[in-house]
Amino acid sequence: MNDEFYMQLALNKAWQCQGLTYPNPAVGAVVTCKGEIVAIAAHETAGSSHAEVLALVMAYETLTSTQVAFDSQNAQKAHAFLLNLPQDIFSECTIYVTLEPCSHEGKTPSCASLLQVLSLKRVVIGTADPIEGHAGGMQKLGSVTVGVLEDDCKALIEPFLIWQKRAFVLFKLAQTTNARIGSDNRYLSCSASLEHVHRLRAVCDVLLVGGNTVRVDRPTLDCRFIQAKAPNVKIYTKDDNFDKGIPLFSVQDRNVVVTDNLDFLDTPSFVLVEGGEGMLHVLKEKIDWLLIYQAPKLSSHNLTYNTTMNLTFLHHTQKDVDLMIWSKRSEQ
């Protein structure tokens, strides 16, 4: 196996948490020992342990056949535990991480400082940290290789770079294999896809929908499938003539704003868009990425996205029976 193979495993793991780590970047890590994979992990939520820390705790468990007695997502406990291990426990290990280990102290301790103390055999990094003030982690380390699958690792953190300066706009759409977006049943997507959407709703700053979607579908737009707080909603429309009995207006502890102005997209944030053809046309030049949930079914329903847009596929995986495709607008 070569460095690219292990880095690809780290990338694949990180994509599972894409968007869910907001406002942090998605990061994956793999630990090997004498050519054997002993851990694969990804950063899961902001404020919890970073990918490197989770992977190292998992590696310890694999190497010692011992399960730790604390929650490895607790960054403070995980760092303290790893720092108290015998210094040579990871001496034959290599860690592959998609993004340069953080050198700064924030909500979690510095991963670069941790790796410096643990003295792994090698540290292989996909791409340097592009944020000013965050870089410098690799300078603390010994045997470092940088730039493995660099373009792919940079693509992974593109949302993170965008929401530093303006809204990262992610347009979510669900469709059948023949691109129909209407359904005669309540839901077009499978339950795993629906839960994933609710996880994205739970972390986004704003859920943006079109007025027609609200009037016709009468949605709730909450996070009931994961028992989380409902997102704040902005309804883009020229006509504020809604039936306030529509469920989304009665969800507690959320802010619903009706607007005909998209200037809020200039503010650094994560905006998730759920809408039909109208919203796709309105936002066509403002969409950064599209997240497509494709159900394994054909439909004679007449609703579809009747538009032209070139896409670049970034990553795909499955959510149960559905195909999930991360993509971005392409000029080609």
Describe this structure in words.
The protein starts with a helix and ends with a strand. 25% of the residues lie in helices and 25% in strands. By secondary structure, it is of the alpha/beta class. 38% of the residues are buried. Strands 9-8-7-10-6-11-13-12 form an eight-stranded mixed beta sheet. It has a five-stranded mixed beta sheet with strand order 2-1-3-4-5.
The mean pLDDT is 93
Instruction: Please report the number of helical segments.
Output: 9
Helical coverage, percent range: 10-25%
**Strands side by side in the biggest sheet:** 9-8-7-10-6-11-13-12
Which oligomerization state do the chains in this entry correspond to? Answer: single chain
